[in-house]
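#lab-general

N.A. 3:47 PM
ok so I finally got the sequence cleaned up, no stray characters, all 433 residues accounted for. can someone with queue access submit it? mine expired

B.Y. 3:52 PM
send it over

N.A. 3:53 PM
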Amino acid sequence: MRAVDIIIRKKQGYELTKDELHFLIDGYVKGIIPDYQISAFLMAVCFVPLTENEQYLLTMEMLQSGEQMDLSSIHGICVDKHSTGGVGDKTTLVVGPILASFGLKLAKMSGRGLGHTGGTLDKLESIPHFQIQLPVLDFYNQVNEISLAVIGQSLNIVPADKKLYALRDVTGTVESIGLIASSIMSKKLASGAHSILLDVKVGDGAFMKDVISAEELAMAMVKIGKKNHRQVIAVLTNMEEPLGKMVGNSLEVIEAIETLKGKGEKKFTELCYALSSELLIEEGICQSKEEAYSKIKEKIETKEALEKLRQMIQYQHGDTHVIEDYSLFPQAQYTFDIHSLKEGYVNSLHAQEIGHCAMLLGAGRKNKEDKINLAVGIKLHKKQGDFIHIGDTLCTIYSDFENIEEVQNKILQCYQIEEEKPKEIPMIYKVIK
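B.Y. 4:20 PM
back already:
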């Protein structure tokens, strides 16, 4: 068997076999097959999409290329939640504690974030002394005791995906639905959870720009999960504007805490309720959306969900006083208010560009080795549908730079202000099971 023959077969439209995909992936991980041949294979896949069976087989090859989490020592129902990524996405920090307050077990290993802001791990590291690295045994014990842990990836999970993803990023082959689905699901299957919730972002600030392509990706991932005997729910959610009001690492943790106190922004709170309810219904804890919403509200009002976040911070050696005293978070040197130059309704607020502005401030990283500034970011005072007068504050910038003229000009361009009030875009587009 030769790599070149497999590449030609795929280019000609033939469906690849398990043995052929194993030959490619195993050979690449072991360094036998060079980058240039795998690059050619990835490009062939972009022009001749992976079939449903190929997607599954590729996922399994990547899954079996490394270690898998063994959650058998955890008592109870293990669930996992994944987002395809968006601007201001601090959802895990709210949904995780909510699910844990119902007794569902969330044992989550996360990676670092690239792009506009940091990932969940970066956000958690803005909590003083919080430890994202734990011995695996301590990780499992923590989940058994408080039902919740979010740590950095310590096992050698899906090394094939790490190599393929890095290559896709530099060869213009990221957009393949089959490659995206296999990448995400190999990692989710390796996490060991029985039920997997996928938050598939759609819109300006997401990788999937339209509902049709997002639905195709969601269906592909659900099918892969079902073939592997996992319960998978994919929820298509709105990412036309940033989630919540805060964009930036410590700022987003503060907003997550406020949401668990019942003071979150309306649309972000709705998203957290909707995502949590899907797993509560799936696992038979609630029988309907109405019952789930009612019980989630009760967990918020009684502070049970907030207590789960506090316990996780405590178990992972963080300073729990941050829940009440936000001054303990990293603080930016300067704050600047950006004022509107127009009057009217906010017709749209470009999520991707707001994320880019946050990255310019230092809240995100362009390369893996870049150091993130955990204190900086943007607080959005006005969002889609809001009416504004000339001079009203659109947002507040938290910066360690005194000169923010470039960011200020970009933010003013992010706001599209019109005379007529826009139609409200739903937070949830579709649920696929």
